[in-house]
Amino acid sequence: MNNRYSDIRSSVRSLCTGFSSEYWQELDEKAAYPKEFVSAMTKSGFLGALIPEEYGGSGLGIAAASAILEEIHLSGGNAAACHAQMYIMGTLLRHGSLTQKDKYLPKIATGEIRLQAFGVTEPSSGTDTASLSTTAKKNGNEYIVNGQKVWTSRAEHSDLMLLLARTTPIDQVERRHQGLSVFLVDMKSSMNAGLTIKPIKTMINHATTEVFFDDLVIPVENLIGVEGEGFKYILDGMNAERILISAECVGDARWFIEKATNYANERNVFNRPIGQNQGIQFPIARSYAQTEAASLMSTRAANLFDLGEPCGAEANIAKLLASEASWDAANMCIQTFGGYGFAKEYDVERKFRETRLYQIAPISTNLILSYIAEHVLGLPRSF
Ligand SMILES: Cc1cc2nc3c(=O)[nH]c(=O)nc-3n(C[C@H](O)[C@H](O)[C@H](O)COP(=O)(O)OP(=O)(O)OC[C@H]3O[C@@H](n4cnc5c(N)ncnc54)[C@H](O)[C@@H]3O)c2cc1C
Question: What CATH number is given for 6-114 in this structure?
Answer without folding.
Answer: 1.10.540.10
